[in-house]
Design brief:
Layout lengths: L6 E6 L4 H13 L3 E7 L11 E4 L8 H11 L6 E6 L15 H25 L7 E7 L12 H20 L5 E7 L6 H7 L9 H9 L6 H13 L8 E3 H6 L1
Parallel strand pairs: 1-2, 1-4, 2-3, 4-5, 5-6, 6-7
Helix pairs in contact: 1-7, 2-3, 3-4
The structure holds NADP nicotinamide-adenine-dinucleotide phosphate (NAP).
Length: 251
């Protein structure tokens, strides 16, 4: 992605946390981009210059319609498109035997079915020759590979998202498509607050997260978003890869 390129960047989870930070830093990191934020309602602090579309990700069946709307207003000059599936939920934080199936379905809809449906709709809208490059970044988690007691819903959905990323990348190995998953590390957002206030009888590792917070070991969302946008700008993402940003910091 060169700075002079005019391209579309669609981000879910745009209301707060990492998604909000990506949109906030986008114009400075990648000028001339056309930002679109997907939010579920109107109660959030909007960023000037960002176009917002409403989609409640508990209802993945609306993905096609949302993509249709987004692509109906973009400039015909746009040749490059990016979708960042950033929205996610941690809940329910319950033991397997206490989890209601409908709660599990909600988590799967937000963390898995909606990213899958949005990716599919995005790939269909960008398959014409007009689009020279297209990138999908699925925000995953270390919890996709590491089991935590009480986190069945979250771990399983992120694990499914990782495998979806690999399959979709394999199916779209056409030289113009990058589909990747990125784990951001431990980031100080609403999600971490939920972790710290969870029930330690259900989630015994809670103390570890409280200690990390106490010792200022959490990443700031702006550090994470800047790192993701730098990788995007510099064409560093490789299709089919599951990347943990912490590995890059360590190297
Ligand atoms: N923070 C961490 O330590 C960490 C670690 C690993 C991975 N991640 C991943 O990073 C991503 C961003 O999380 P975050 O840390 O920024 O958490 P966050 O501050 O809790 O933000 C979550 C975002 O998802 C949106 N969302 C949730 N349910 C939705 C729904 N039904 N429809 C539409 N949007 C919905 C929220 O919108 P509302 O404001 O409307 O609720 C919010 O914008 C997630 O995929 C998460 O799994 C985070």
């Amino acid at each position: 992605m060169k700075n002079e390129d005019n391209f579309l960047v669609i981000v879910t989870g745009a209301s707060r946390g990492i998604g909000h930070s990506i949109l906030k830093n986008l114009s400075e990191m990648i000028p001339f981009s056309n930002p679109v934020g997907i939010v579920r309602g109107t109660e959030f602090s909007a960023i000037l210059g960002v176009q917002y579309e409403i989609m409640d990700l508990r209802f993945p069946e609306n993905a096609e319609e949302v993509m249709e709307r987004i692509f109906s207003f973009i400039s015909p000059a746009i040749e490059k498109a990016v979708l960042i599936n950033c929205a996610g939920v941690l809940t329910p934080l319950t033991r397997v035997t206490d989890t209601a199936v409908n709660e599990l379905q909600t988590t799967f809809n937000v963390n898995y079915h909606s990213p899958v449906a949005l990716t599919a709709a995005f790939l269909k809208k960008t398959r014409t020759e007009i689009f020279k490059e297209r990138t999908v970044i699925n925000i995953t988690s270390g919890a996709a590979r590491h089991p935590y007691s009480g986190w069945n819903a979250y771990c399983s959905t992120k694990s499914a998202l990782d495998m979806f990323t690999r399959v979709a990348a394999m199916e779209n190995d056409d030289g113009k498509t990058v589909i990747t998953a990125v784990a951001p590390g431990i980031v100080e957002t609403h999600m971490q607050q939920q972790i710290r206030s969870s029930d330690s009888a259900v989630f015994p590792e809670k103390e570890k997260f409280i200690k990390l917070h106490h010792n200022n070991m959490l990443r700031h969302p702006d550090d994470v978003s800047t790192q993701i946008l730098t990788l995007l700008r510099d064409d560093e993402f490789q299709t089919g890869m599951i990347l943990d940003l912490r590995d890059l910091i360590a190297n």
